[in-house]
UniProtKB/TrEMBL annotation:
PROSITE patterns per UniProt: CLAT_ADAPTOR_S (PS00989)
Classification via CDD domains: Zeta-COP
Gene3D superfamilies (alphabetical): 3.30.450.60
Chief location bin: cytoplasm
Function: The coatomer is a cytosolic protein complex that binds to dilysine motifs and reversibly associates with Golgi non-clathrin-coated vesicles, which further mediate biosynthetic protein transport from the ER, via the Golgi up to the trans Golgi network. Coatomer complex is required for budding from Golgi membranes, and is essential for the retrograde Golgi-to-ER transport of dilysine-tagged proteins. The zeta subunit may be involved in regulating the coat assembly and, hence, the rate of biosynthetic protein transport due to its association-dissociation properties with the coatomer complex.
Name of the protein in its database record: Coatomer subunit zeta
Pfam family, one: Clat_adaptor_s
Gene Ontology cellular component annotations, sorted alphabetically: COPI vesicle coat; Golgi membrane
Membrane topology: Peripheral membrane protein
Recorded family membership: Belongs to the adaptor complexes small subunit family.
Domain AP complex mu/sigma subunit residues, every copy: 20-158
Domain of life: Eukaryota
Any GO BP annotation: intra-Golgi vesicle-mediated transport
Amino acid sequence: MVYKKNTMEGSLFEPTLYLVKGMCIMDNDGNRILAKYYDPDILNNTKDQKAFEKNLFNKTHRANAEIIMLDGLTCVYKNNVDLYFYVMGSSHENELILQSVLNALYESVSILLRRNVEKRILLDNLDAVMLAFDEICDGGVILDSDPTSIVSRAALRTEDVPLGEQTVAQVFFNIMNK
């Protein structure tokens, strides 16, 4: 639980589970591949989100740090080959918690993509990565930070495609592997 200090009264707010304000994956040009924002009070429209992401990328793509304060948000990030992974929280959020969410996101994607964390492969498996986003965080509440359990739940959900919506190759693959 995180206690938020009220600067007006000097007292503590009630504990909250809403720690994550957003998660985002961008390519090495700063273009959004996947993003989810959980706080409607900040970045509540696509135009604001794109402007924030552009600014965030410009501040982080050459830096060697892992954390930045930007527009009142604490942002932790990691890059690999041609992708940048970001997790955002409020300015008073614990960076270690945000870093654990970032590590869970990156490791889950790494496992899902069989250690080939590159833009082309991520785009080919975007559905599974989107499910991993949902398994990590729901509405700003951290659900899980164990990459193995995240991947196992995301993989189970991707296998539940109705027979009529599967390609012939998927049906053949499922038959051969049972």
